[in-house]
Amino acid sequence: MIKLLWNTQNQNISNPNNLSYQDSVDYNWGVYHKNNSDKWILNILKKVQFKLIKNEQDLENEDTLIIVDSAIEKKKELYLKLKLICSKLFLIHLGDETGAFDLTKIYNNFSFVWRSFCSNRFFNNKKVSCLPIGYKSGVCLKKQENVRKYKWAFIGTPHKSSRHDILFQFSSIKPSFCHKTNKFNEKIIDTNRMSEILSSTEFVPCPNGFFHPETYRLYEALECECIPIVENAFRYYERLFPNNPFIKVDKWIEVKSMIKEWDREQIKKKGRV
Fold this sequence. Notes:
6-stranded parallel sheet; elongated; 2 domains; alpha/beta; Rossmann fold; 32% helix
């Protein structure tokens, strides 16, 4: 039988009542992945018939297990145990945006690995496939009028010069929507409101993340049928999505006139045929 274990919120901590700073960070990220990535991952797996289990005690000998996990560098013993029980073991690895750890020995426990935040070392790895990080659970296209209210929208933290440049270059383009936060996942807009805003927006600039080119923003824009504009740094999206139709820029000023001047037919042709 194929079984699925979502394990990101379970950390291998010897003393859960006395968490170190890093343990606390890993735990909070694990909960974040469970709350915000579940619908995306389950949608990917919708054609797979599996039984959702709560922990490894629900496994039987020769089961095939798909485990969704994060902070995997701390869970080596768990994977060795699962490998002895299961006939096949697959990993969906969430997080690890910085790519700080050498995970080769851990990945070797699995028949195959799908991981988010890919880097050069994984694109040609026959045992690892790159998985888009997807949209936050709850973001979806809302019913809208024929003409969208906002020309562009930015929701997030304006860290790094690139994001400040977006706000500078596009500031004169109206109407627009901008919601700035001081920190990631702090004072954010709930997913229902975000869906309403994005479903009323034509263009969504998608700057690189803090460590990695990918952010949820791209996939949320696509889910709400906006036109995403991505930074062309490292040609990352050409490798992740060959022949993709995204608008790509090296400098945000390059698309300023496009956002201002494109008419309804041009936007419809590019974004929502």
